[in-house]
User: What shape does this take?
Amino acid sequence: MRSLRSRLLVGSLLWTAGLLSISHMLFLLVLRWHAVFRINPHMVLLGGAVLMLAGLLYLRGGVSRIEQLRVRLIDVREGRSNRVEGTYPSEVQPLVNDLNALLGEREEAVRRAVAKAGDLAHGLKTPLAVIAQEAARGEGMGSEAGALIGQQVERMRRQIDYHLAHARAGAAGTSAGIHCSVADSVDGLSRTLRRLHAERGIVIESDVSADHTVRVRREDLDEMLGNLLDNACRFARVRVVVSSEQLEKLIAITIDDDGPGLPPSMRDEVLQRGVRADESAPGTGFGLAIVRDLAEVYGGSISLEGSPAGGLRARLQLPQG
Assistant: This one.
């Protein structure tokens, strides 16, 4: 299938060839009769050239609107806009209107689905909290069943958080203008984690630029960074360092710790759902899986590698906001 531009070009060339043939015959007539009618052939040629140039410019204007449509569609795909803005030729405008209507219906459908998921999560968390309280009471009385129930309640809670976060991130792909500050998220999480790990004296240093923003909902960025920072603090000996850098259209957030690290053979494995690096430590194995899935939904990625500090480096890359 030929492109619209190539069809316009070929059609214009064919039309111009036919026009030149007719013009040639008219020019011969002008040369024959210019003395009688006092017609200047050079002025005729100049007028014809001006008309042809005007026609090409007019045609170029129509093609540029099609190119503008392509740019607007890229804006929609990359989340900078939720509608195809602008006016277009009458042959294209009905298609644009239908597309905008479809985008509006899709956004509303996703909004309703996320709202229902949130309602379901809220409805489940209350009875889970009651069960967890009773399980803790039983565990305090030495009941093994209480401890087992408490573990399973925590797994259920993490499952709810996992799927709810995934639903939110999927909805973010249909909304425009989403962005948040990496520094704000890191600062807030660092204050919380310093208090949680105060007994161990963990130091969290931040070298994140205040100008770095990502196209991610704040709660989802907190979810990803919270998991990564919590892991770093749990395994670090003394120090955790968070930094950021810009890579073309991505922001790379790096979290280093000075802990024991992780063997290369396990770095990809622990990103899978339900896998934990340390089975003796508390947890469900969903934390890094949530980070991976959320990053991919937003068009980013997560990787684990050795840290210059001696421990593990987590590198989270997300679209620039």
Observations:
- DSSP finds eight helices and seven strands in the chain.
- The mean pLDDT is 77.
- The chain has three domains: 4-77, 90-176, 178-321.
- Strands lie at 180-181, 203-207, 213-214, 239-247, 250-257, 301-306, 312-319.
